[in-house]
Design brief:
71 residues, mainly alpha, 0% strand, globular
Length: 71
Amino acid sequence: ALPFRIVLALLVAVVLIPGTCGFVLMFLGAAFVGWVLLLSWPRRTGPERIMRLAVFLLALALAVVQLFPRH
């Protein structure tokens, strides 16, 4: 439950804090998701791996969009 709360808090902070600070927070969230993905990789089945990898890539994409927003 704690990892979920950490990621949720980071996502809420990203919404409230735009720009470079938001990028750093989103990148930290993506790094956390990537770390959990790495730790759980051997125990996951194929579809579970794909879904967790998709969440990780989406978090990275959101971090890049936060850094370079469209005006």
